[in-house]
Design goal:
five-stranded mixed sheet; globular; single chain
């Protein structure tokens, strides 16, 4: 019995000894276990973080005007944007009549996310969206790009139509508008492009086998490149700024009448090509290329738009600014910008903004130069376009280095008007140039339109 008890006591002591050893090492063991558990948990979390995030599929609907710049650029830049943004699909809809399509899409609650359509487009869709406050504020994007832009290019009524310090439209391109001519014809006949209006009319003594000028008579907005700088240089920039805000007194000013007299003289001296009043832009451009007129007011897109059109032998592009009254006048060149914007009805505004910012990247600029022969108004891009355009078009981008000032403006947007003031203004000036109205008749016609427009400027 004693032996059994002794064995039992011995067994208890052995167990107690091992229990004591376990007690001494337990804190260390627990810490290690905690550390191991924590490390395992952290490792698992890191592994989860390292897993590929779920790709969000997004579709950006882009509607663009298909005109002189074509659509190839938009297709290429869409692919480049998709390549940088996994899961994004860019659907490009391009159409010469995109304005009408956009209007219908918005009305049917199927708005594009991004639009390229000039406010000068004959559909009036962009102007309508401006009047209806139907365009999204893109100031956050444009503020980031401001330092890259040509000075002052964002500070104009085209891109900031409400005068509230915010930007709603962005410039797609930056091109000079002026008088285009056949440089080879001028050189062969020892003719110098006109600087003043006196130079312009003296050309009739040297040019006898063609009219001096033609334009798209049924689309008189093409006269902008001749009329706007003529007013700004001859009447002064202050007078011009008042004119585009419908200041009625400007129409009666001696300075404005002096310019209108020059337009009237184009008709009276038969400097305008016969039939100009009834032709469209492509016909007028085709007639010019075939030597029916010495000059045509237009933008630098004309070279690409008419690249396949027949022309007189030896034709080469030449470019000149609109004539001035006096040689020492400030000289202006209309700097045209076609606008891009994001409609308020877009269902994908943030992606549209990302796309807009991408269009000003080095990659997109090179695509635009190659495929559309144009560039946005960014500093230091004149050299980018040189390999892709003719010499005259390239020169039109650098004319501002020769003392010419950019004229970036448009008539102020109006609301509650049946007539379109811009259309009425250029249509009426066109009638003076073609000889169906005198300058007095034109001014009398425009006065009530300006009075009404001044009361209905969109604030």
């Amino acid at each position: 019995m004693k032996r059994k008890i002794s064995l039992f006591v011995a067994l208890i002591m052995v167990v107690a000894m091992f229990a004591g050893c376990g007690s001494k090492t337990k804190p260390t063991t627990d810490d290690n276990q905690k550390s191991t558990t924590a490390d395992t948990s952290k490792s698992s979390e890191e592994k989860n973080n390292e897993q590929e995030p779920e790709i969000k599929e997004q579709t950006l609907k882009v509607s663009v005007f298909q005109g002189g710049f074509g659509r190839e650029y938009w297709d290429e830049v869409a692919k480049a944007f998709e390549a940088q943004n996994e899961g994004v699909t860019v659907e490009v809809t391009a159409d010469p009549n995109i304005g009408e399509r956009i209007r219908n899409d918005i009305l049917s609650n199927d708005s594009p996310d991004f639009i390229y359509l000039s406010s000068r487009d004959k559909s009036g869709t962009t102007q309508s969206l401006i009047k209806d406050k139907g365009i999204a504020d893109i100031s956050d994007v444009m503020n980031k790009l401001e330092d890259k832009m040509i000075d002052g290019v964002l500070d104009n009524s085209l891109l900031s139509p409400y005068g509230d310090g915010k930007t709603y439209l962005a410039p797609f391109n930056f091109s000079s508008l002026g008088l285009w001519y056949n440089e080879n014809y001028f050189k062969t006949n020892d003719i110098t492009a006109p600087v003043t209006w006196d130079d312009f009319f003296e050309l009739q003594n040297k040019i006898t086998d063609r009219a001096l000028i033609t334009y798209a008579g049924i689309y008189p907005g093409y006269l902008e490149s001749l009329v706007f700088p003529a007013i700004a240089s001859g009447a002064g920039k202050d007078t011009f700024d008042k004119l585009v805000k419908y200041d009625v007194a400007t129409l009666d000013s001696d300075e404005f009448k002096a310019i209108m007299e020059k337009f009237e003289k184009i008709a009276s001296t038969k400097a305008i090509m016969n039939g100009t009043a009834g032709i469209n832009h492509t016909t007028s451009q085709a007639e010019f290329l075939m030597g029916k007129a010495a000059m045509i007011p237009n933008g630098s897109w004309i070279a690409n738009e008419m690249k396949d059109a027949p022309r007189e032998d030896g034709f080469t592009w030449g470019f000149a600014a609109a004539p001035v009254l006096k040689a020492d006048n400030d000289k202006y060149v209309v700097a045209s910008m076609d606008e891009m914007y994001i409609p308020s009805a877009s269902k994908n505004k943030e992606l549209a903004k990302k796309f807009l910012e991408f269009l000003y990247s080095d990659e997109a600029i090179k695509i635009q130069a190659e495929k559309a022969q144009s560039v946005p108004p960014l500093k230091g891009v004149a050299d980018v376009i040189k390999p892709f355009v003719d010499e005259a078009t390239g020169a039109s981008y650098t004319l501002f280095d020769e003392g010419y000032k950019p004229l970036i403006s448009n008539f102020a947007a109006v609301d509650n008007m049946t007539l379109v003031p811009r259309k009425e203004f250029f249509g009426t000036v066109g009638q003076v140039i073609t000889g169906t109205k005198t300058k007095e008749e034109a001014i009398d016609y425009l006065k009530p339109i300006f009075e009404e427009a001044a009361k209905n400027i969109v604030k």
